[in-house]
Amino acid sequence: MLGKHTLSVYIGRRFLTAIFGVFGLCSILIFMIDFVELLRQAGKYGSVPAWLLAWITLLRLPAYTEMLLPFAILVGSIGALLMLARKSELAVMRAGGMSVWQFLRPALAVALGLGVLSSIAFNPLAAGARDRAEDLYAEAFDRELQLLGKGSGPWLRQDGPDGQSVLSAASVQSHGTELRSVTAFVYDENGKFAERVDARTATLEEGVWVLDEAMVSGVGRQPESYPTYLLSTYLSPERVADAFGSVISLSFWELPDLIYITEKAGLSSAQLRIQYELLLSRPLLCVAMVFLAATVSLRSFRSGGIQTMVVTGMAGGFGFFLFAEISRQIGTAGLAPIWAAVWIPVLLVILVSVTVLLHQEDG
């Protein structure tokens, strides 16, 4: 029993080292690319200290790299299994009576643990770091984060206790709580058009948008000017930035509440639901990558064809990621249930990989 435990720890450590090695190399590459892009923007928008650009890049790095974990597990698992096979350690394990399921068990445990930690711990850390990076970016370049667009006049449909309304703003400041050059079309509780409001600014407070210097035009009446106009909403100042921001800036623990509030405000929550399901499925996805890696990495070096098998495994991995992305887009568009769009590709790659391993192991 002690020998089996020692062997499991050894195999798990080899997989963990290989996965972290791939993850670290990819992280360095992403850091360098993002840092160069910030340097280019600094030259375009104004002088910013290099240390501040490096700090912003470092804060943004976790949000980018957390999506690389499944890829790192795939490549790291292929590398770890190939190294075990190259040193004939896999052959010795098989000669000792171990099946593929036994020596893959430590790797599966490592992948499952990394997937769980990525969703419940690393993701909230990455979301908080990215929020801080966005604040520093806005201060460094003296440009407000424009979550609704850069003066292009996007439209936002929302709901409130008094009925629905549609807003457009030329620009957005303070993480979505302050709008400039606002136009609002207000509907009554029965869904009929009530009036149009043009305002210089709009500020989101608890339960209402406060529109300043508003010009109100109704059907069959003359436009009237008001110093302040209140427009009801279910959005809150704490959630509006998340509702309009990038989903990679959202924490796993915040998503359930945010989905509820977004739907109550009359906004589409498809992207938020997709992100939540992706985080829930990440542990199983990491396990799937180990199975996929095993299908192309267990052949003995003496039998040859290793390069072909590795290329096949990498191609299969990229094919899976492409298929998963297409499925995610289908779910976001509402053409398939969101749970199916996220979980079916993962379950499919596990079933196919296990079938291949059964064939290789038992013929």
Name the beta content range.
15-25%
The strand count comes to: 6
What is the percent of helical residues? 55-70%
Instruction: Note the main sheet.
Output: 6 strands, antiparallel
- N-end to C-end Cα span: 29 Å
Q: What integer is the average pLDDT?
A: 81
Characterize the overall form.
elongated
For the biggest β-sheet, the strand order reads: 1-2-3-4-5-6
What is the number of helices? 10
Instruction: Give the low-pLDDT segments.
Output: 143-153
- Helices and strands, in order, run as HHHHHEEEEEEHHHHH
Overall number of structural domains: 2
Features:
363 residues; alpha+beta; 2 domains; six-stranded antiparallel beta sheet; 10 helices; 6 strands; 61% helix; elongated
Summary, kept brief:
The protein is an alpha+beta fold. Helices cover about 60% and strands about 15% of the residues. It has two domains: about 230 residues, no CATH class; about 90 residues, no CATH class.
Report on this structure.
The protein is α+β, with helices and mostly antiparallel strands and 363 residues long. It contains ten helices and six strands. It has helices spanning 2-45, 50-65, 69-86, 89-95, 100-140, 237-244, 255-264, 270-294, 306-332, 338-362; strands at residues 155-158, 165-173, 178-187, 193-205, 208-218, 224-232. The chain has a six-stranded antiparallel sheet, with no helix packed on it. A hairpin with a 4-residue loop joins strand 2 (165-173) and strand 3 (178-187). Helix 1 runs parallel beside helix 5, helix 8 (270-294) packs antiparallel against helix 9 and helix 9 runs antiparallel to helix 10 (338-362).
